[in-house]
Amino acid sequence: MKRHLYSGTWLSTKKELNHPQLAQLFGTINLMNGPSNQFLLKQYIITLLSPRPIFADVNPRPFGQGFSLRETQQIYESLRELLKQANAITNGELISAFANLDEHGTHQLHWFIFSYWPQIVELLDK
Fold first, then answer.
1. 14-43 confidence digits (pLDDT tens)
2. Structural domain containing residue 10
3. By C-alpha distance, which of 111, 102, 108, 91 is closest to 48?
4. Is the same domain home to 56 and 116?
5. Does the pTM exceed 0.85?
6. Cα–Cα distances in Å, from 69 out to 17, 18, 60?
């Protein structure tokens, strides 16, 4: 039986990974990367930018619990995958602005999301 280290706790069964409390705390769980990248993107938007709840299944991070470099890289990857599905005509400005981002520039990522979060939310809801 494979065991997975998740949030400091060893979990040994798929049943444990689908435990309701874990789902409530961490959202959809991807065995390879912890919380799914889209979940991290949603959580990032809600935690840093949204004055009101947008996603029913995602809560903001507690105050003082920031996003790690690895998590911001996962958020970047999630955006890249999301924008591959975007319409080049209606979301051309968004796609163009994302193309100019530095993959490792977390401040650039923050300002990109700050500038375009309503359009990103619309794409996430599709």
1. 444 444 443 444 443 333 444 588 999 999
2. 1-35
3. 111
4. yes
5. no
6. 24, 26, 18
